[in-house]
């Protein structure tokens, strides 16, 4: 590993941390140097179970990683309730912050995190992995081709999985003191991000939550959705659920074309991602099933897993700050904040009897 590698510490041993520890190891510009958990034993087990190098330091307290002068950046996959505490603490120790989504319980918490990162000159990025896949760039090019796709009219995102009884009873994502946003935070975040991505990160004018969301006995959201409306007539809908068959679909409709992807968050194959695209299709005959042209599949390869691409992108920004004296790239923070604003609006609409809510700035 080159001396310029960004040296990572991981705060917490959640399942998602397994993917990122692998990504850090596979990345050409990062090195995993420390893992912390609430106990040394749990951190040791994580290192052993994931065949991490013996050089990885093991800590029984999160703060020990932040005090380590050999750590440049931290990945934080802790429960959402703990994000503001540890992300702010990391920034104050001059550690760059890669924060798992959802990044906060609300935008006020996120603003505290972003203020700490900005005032200490450290990079912030959330852990929305799919935006770093090469397929995402190719899909954006297709949506931007006005001749073939036309004007954006509708976006529909569905993300869900049947979590099962053990998850619904014991997982942190159904505990109000750990991840109070439930399905809205865990997978609704992806739905909202995909909608904003397709709409060129233009905030909707209003958000209306769908009726009859499902809660568990502790009041945590298990299933919900919303409709988003823009002043120019664009409409978006999403549905997220811990109770449905696993589905990661995104559909984007324009006046001339349509784009669909069925594995948005995690491609079916690690080495490539596919999407279908059709332009100006119509019935060629009166008989059913005679479309012309038919949708075409576009396959976009990736030499490394998408998690590695995210880690690479984050590390490049850190290296520029550390080696060239440049300022952090705040586009990632802006995108996270927009996603949080819409998520807050969905929750507010649910709490206000499914009234229309405008995503607003906190004063």
From TrEMBL:
GFO/IDH/MocA-like oxidoreductase domain boundaries: 145-260
Domain of life: Eukaryota
Coiled-coil annotated spans: none
Signal peptide range: none
InterPro entries attached to this UniProt entry: Gfo/Idh/MocA-like_OxRdtase_N, GFO_IDH_MocA-like_dom, NAD(P)-bd_dom_sf
SUPFAM superfamilies for the chain: Glyceraldehyde-3-phosphate dehydrogenase-like, C-terminal domain, NAD(P)-binding Rossmann-fold domains
Protein name: Gfo/Idh/MocA-like oxidoreductase N-terminal domain-containing protein
Native source species: Eucalyptus globulus (Tasmanian blue gum)
């Amino acid at each position: 590993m080159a001396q310029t590698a960004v040296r990572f510490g991981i705060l917490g041993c959640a399942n998602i941390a397994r993917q990122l520890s692998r990504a850090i190891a596979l990345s050409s510009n990062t090195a995993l140097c420390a893992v912390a958990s609430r106990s040394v034993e749990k951190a040791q087990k994580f290192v052993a179970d994931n065949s991490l190098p013996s050089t990885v330091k093991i800590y029984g307290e999160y703060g020990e990683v932040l005090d380590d002068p050999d750590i440049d950046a931290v990945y934080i996959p802790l429960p959402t309730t703990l994000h503001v505490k540890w992300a702010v603490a990391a920034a104050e120790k001059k550690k760059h912050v890669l924060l798992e989504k959802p990044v906060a319980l609300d935008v006020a918490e996120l603003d505290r995190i972003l203020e700490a990162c900005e005032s200490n000159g450290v990079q912030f990025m959330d852990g929305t992995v799919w935006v770093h896949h090469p397929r995402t760039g190719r899909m954006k090019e297709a949506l931007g081709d006005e001749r073939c796709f036309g004007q954006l009219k509708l976006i529909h995102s569905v993300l869900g999985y049947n979590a099962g009884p053990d998850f619904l009873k014991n997982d942190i994502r159904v505990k109000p003191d750990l991840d109070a946003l439930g399905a809205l935070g865990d997978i609704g975040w992806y739905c909202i991000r995909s909608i904003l991505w397709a709409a060129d990160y233009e905030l909707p004018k209003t958000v209306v939550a769908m009726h009859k969301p499902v809660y568990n006995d502790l009041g945590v959201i298990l299933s919900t959705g919303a409709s988003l409306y823009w002043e120019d007539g664009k409409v978006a809908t999403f549905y997220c659920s811990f109770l449905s068959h696993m589905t990661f679909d995104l559909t984007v409709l324009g006046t001339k074309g349509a784009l669909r992807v069925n594995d948005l968050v995690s491609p079916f194959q690690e080495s490539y991602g596919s999407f279908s695209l059709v332009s100006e299709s119509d019935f060629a005959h009166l008989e059913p099933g005679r479309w012309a042209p038919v949708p075409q599949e576009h396959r976009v390869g990736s030499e490394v897993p998408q998690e590695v691409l995210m880690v690479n992108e984050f590390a490049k920004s850190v290296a520029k700050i550390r080696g060239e004296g440049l300022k952090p790239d705040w586009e990632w923070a802006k995108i996270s904040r927009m996603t949080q604003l819409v998520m807050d609006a969905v929750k507010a609409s649910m709490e206000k009897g499914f009234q229309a809510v405008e995503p607003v700035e906190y004063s």
